Amino acid sequence: MASSSSKALIALGTILLAHACYSAYEHSALHLAAGLPLDISIETVLSVVFICVGLVLGAEELKPISWRVWAGRAERESGGGGPFQGLEDRLGFVDIRVKRKDFADWVRDQGSDNKG
Amino acid sequence: MPTERELAISPLVQESVQHNTQVISNIRSLTASLFGVASGILGLESYSGFLFYLLGTFFVSILIWSILAKGKQRDYFQGVWSELWAGDVLNGGMSFVLTWTLFYGLVRA
């Protein structure tokens, strides 16, 4: 939405600016003594305003520089992700005795299978 | 500028700082040449041309403040004055003078 309106504003402003430029050129070629007519001045200023608003509307969004704001937004947008994802997904404590017993049982089963 | 203690309490994201500076300097350089074109067409001379540039820069700053920063300039800029309101004014001034003289010469040849 913002990008299409910004493009339209920039296009309109550029056309107006080109027209004002050509008008000023023709005017200066015709009567050298007279100053610039008011309508050309208004057209120029208006076109500049249009292009400026269009440029600012079409610019990339600014990012918050404070770490907590930025991290909070990143976490919300990725649904629980964010810079602390690695800490969230860590395993809890492993019961090493149970694991060791499981491994010993498995080794014993393998041994008995090979014999039989 | 924030002190070291403040930075330790609320750290900054360097990537975002660079991104914001980039966005602002893009807008500034584009609009500076645009103001040059306009003041060349208007046929401004000496001080009135520079005054036009300063007014235009101020207008663009207000646009950035209201549209891009949504009024919360402290969230997006470290040094509000140097980055948002007066940032790149001198750099833009170069391209302003360039297009100003070019279009002044083109229109009033």
From TrEMBL, chain A:
- Specify whether 4Fe-4S is a keyword of the entry: no
Bilayer topology reads:
Multi-pass membrane protein
Q: Where in the cell is it found?
A: Endomembrane system
Predominant subcellular localization, coarse grouping: membrane
Instruction: Check the record and name the InterPro entries matching this protein.
Output: EMC_subunit, MMgT
Q: Which PANTHER family match?
A: ER MEMBRANE PROTEIN COMPLEX SUBUNIT 5 (PTHR28144:SF1)
Q: Please state which protein family the record places this protein in.
A: Belongs to the membrane magnesium transporter (TC 1.A.67) family.
Q: What is the name attached to this protein's record?
A: Magnesium transporter
Source species, please? Letharia columbiana
TrEMBL record, chain B:
Q: Which Pfam families match?
A: EMC6 (PF07019)
Entry membrane topology = Multi-pass membrane protein
Keywords attached to this Swiss-Prot or TrEMBL record, sorted alphabetically, are: Endoplasmic reticulum, Membrane, Transmembrane, Transmembrane helix
GO cellular component terms, alphabetically, are: EMC complex
Q: Which GO terms describe its biological process?
A: autophagosome assembly; protein folding in endoplasmic reticulum
Task: Name the principal localization, coarsely classed.
Answer: endoplasmic reticulum
Query: Where found, per UniProt?
Result: Endoplasmic reticulum membrane
What are the transmembrane regions? 50-68, 89-107
Q: Give the UniProt family note.
A: Belongs to the EMC6 family.
Tell me the PANTHER family matching this sequence.
ER MEMBRANE PROTEIN COMPLEX SUBUNIT 6
Q: What is this protein called?
A: ER membrane protein complex subunit 6
